[in-house]
Specification:
Blueprint: E1 2-3, H1 23-55, E2 76-85, E3 90-97
Parallel strand pairs: 1-2
Antiparallel strand pairs: 2-3
Subcellular location: Membrane
Keywords: Calcium, Lipid transport, Lipid-binding, Membrane, Metal-binding, Repeat, Transmembrane, Transmembrane helix, Transport
InterPro entries: Extended_Synaptotagmin, SMP_LBD, Synaptotagmin_SMP
């Protein structure tokens, strides 16, 4: 749901109704999920693996993820609340649910 914290009549961009469905955002997340999963895999392999390896004792010479996969079930947005806004920024609070099938 989208909650408009401001009742400023000049601000029609954020005002719709008090609450609005965010299913369109979940549809978008579903479409983007495979790409997000690949990006997380790349970050784990290019950033996390080397950082962990660098901190390992000499006796342990290697650290690798066997699998990095966020799964097929995407993160869901349950609610969105507009906390504050100004000319340069918007602050939102998101209620997120991840009941996924990830594997690492």
């Amino acid at each position: 749901m989208f909650s408009s914290a401001s009742q400023d009549p000049e601000n029609t961009y954020y005002q719709t109704t008090q609450y609005e469905s965010v299913e369109w955002l979940n549809d978008l997340m579903s479409k983007m999920w495979p790409f997000i999963s690949k990006a997380v895999e790349r970050i784990c392999r290019e950033t996390v693996e080397p950082a962990v390896e660098a901190s390992l004792p000499k006796a342990l010479h290697s650290f690798k993820f066997r699998k990095v996969d966020l799964g097929r079930k995407p993160l869901r947005v349950e609610a969105v609340e507009l906390v504050s806004k100004n000319e340069k920024s918007v602050c939102l609070t998101l209620d997120l649910v991840y009941d996924g099938d990830s594997g690492m």
